[in-house]
Amino acid sequence: SLRERGNHSYELLVESPEDTLAENNLLQGVVAVKGPPRVLLLSAESASQRVISGVLRVQGYAVLESSPQAHSLSLSELSAYDLVVLDNVPAFQLTHAKMENLEKYVRDLGGGVLVIGGAQSYGAGGYFRTPLERILPVDMRPPASLELPHVALLFVIDKSGSRGAGSADNTKPDLAKAAAIAAADIMNPADQVGILAFDANWDWALPFRQVGKGEWISEKLSSLQSDGGTDLYKAMVEAHRAIAGKQAAIKHAIVLSDGLTDKADFTTLVRNMARDGITVSTVSVGSDADVQLMADIAKTGRGRGYVALDPQTIPQIFTAETLLIARDLLIEKTVTPTIVAPTGPLKGIAQNNLPAVRGYVLTYPKARAELLMRADKDPLLVSWRYGLGQVTAFTSDLSRRWGREWVEWPGFSQWASQLARDTMR
Fold first, then answer.
1. In Å, how far from its chain's centre is CA 297?
2. Predicted structure pTM score
């Protein structure tokens, strides 16, 4: 009885006094013991929220739970697993190299990837224009014909010479340029965008104007250079003045800085901005950043606070934030899913027994993808083959926020196991 995973050699010897032909008495061979399917579960959720891991273990899967940052996700490491599960993982927690390795793992090694949604996933998690989006059967960007609310978006960019973000080849202004260009590319041509740069003083790198095709942004930002100290407060006072007078349904500011600035009454300022209908999100950059100040500004400004541990993820953060404010990506309402294709992972699961979900991330199915489940008219479960492997996307979560009834459903164990089995290598 062989229990250890791997290749085992064996030998069979037949001995008989009546046997006169000894040449055929010995057989040698190798048997491969696969063992239980191996699953790598990467999650931004706390251990108590990872419901799917317990279910898969009961179903006979060997599950290793971890955070996205704890693994190199090299091809050799990934090849040891039959399935990789990304449970509400933002792209900001995966380097570009890790996402490229996940793509190769699926396309070239035939691996399986199961992506579970949540408030930090898909478009809300910065998947747009990354290798992770390429392998997914759903798009993050709305169709071109979709009418979006009129947006006034202001980037408040720290161009000070303080250390932290970037390197000699990728300074804060360089990263800010790439981020602003990426964000403007997904905006409606009629939307307005402005870029306010600051160090010890503020300067309009780009006064508010319509996005149009956006090709002018790179030219306007070409002169942006690192310089001087940091006075975030004065820049935000000017940002408030400029955006308050704009005629737009959505007024939003994204502040990119290390937050290393003189003390000031940011709370009152940002509260006044919120009173005038201006929301504020922040992106902290640099190993020595004042993350607490930046988080407090975002909280008071009714926005979101991001920490860019890897400066190269800043464009992803900007695109995620732009999608979030230009289009309500987080659909939070109670809806009973509809089974579109009762095959594969949904075989034997009855429509009339499905529980409700309380929300999901808005996505759009790709042309060759197989739509398995819908929430209203939007995709909930979508699958496709990518290269040699399989990728499945579930756009709701499996936690208490949106999936409370789902994870308590008697059929959840069967659904999760069949989903894993259908997706894995």
1. 23
2. 0.74
